[in-house]
Amino acid sequence: MNNLLRGDDVDHLEFLDRADSLKALGKNVLITKMARFDNLSGLLARYTREPIAIALSIGLLNELFKEKWTEDIPGGILESFGRTFQNKTRLYVSPWLNRKSGEFVTARTFRAPEQYVHLYQHFLANGLVVDVPFFNEFLLRHTPRDIQRMIAADEDIWKTLVPEEAHRSALHFR
């Protein structure tokens, strides 16, 4: 949901509609302003001793390797990832389809920045970063913004891209 915070105007109703769509699918939703996963992992660990799973996209995985997120941490990116994974946290990464090149990118095929390739290989080898299996590449050809445009334009094809349980919640995007 952090994508909704880009730009100057935040549509709070749209923000809540996305949460409602996830709830309609039986998912628990946590909305937070925490941008760093090390902080989020620490917060969740206060409330459970169970393993923690954080779902993210390839784009967000790439973002985790940017130094801007660790400028205020003495140990930099190593300390940040250490804090993230200390609470039995795993990052579950959904695949991405580059619509221009057709490249299908998974957690396994993701190319970490050169200076972090070995660190990322360690994460994969030890199950800290996990691929989310994805069997319908067709769904990756449409972004959430594409689906919003389809709903607003009253194009019924969006119904084939969204689980039926979320149809009623999705209608709020009109």
Structural class assignment: alpha/beta
Largest sheet: 3 strands, parallel
Distance between the termini: 18 Å
Q: What general form does the structure show?
A: globular
| Oligomeric state of the chains in view | single chain
Q: What number is the mean pLDDT?
A: 84
CA radius of gyration is 17 Å
Largest sheet: spatial strand order? 1-2-5
The arrangement of helices and strands along the chain is: HHEHHEEEHEHH
Helix count?
7
Note the topology.
Layout: H1 12-24, H2 37-45, E1 52-57, H3 58-64, H4 76-85, E2 89-94, E3 96-97, E4 104-105, H5 117-125, E5 129-131, H6 144-152, H7 167-170
Task: Write a structural description.
By secondary structure, the protein is an alpha/beta fold. The chain has helices spanning 12-24, 37-45, 58-64, 76-85, 117-125, 144-152, 167-170; strands at residues 52-57, 89-94, 96-97, 104-105, 129-131. A hairpin with a 6-residue loop joins strand 3 (96-97) and strand 4 (104-105). The chain is globular. The chain starts with 11 loop residues before the first helix and ends with a helix. The mean pLDDT is 84.
Question: Could you provide a short overview of the structure?
Answer:
By secondary structure, the protein is α/β, with parallel strands linked by helices.
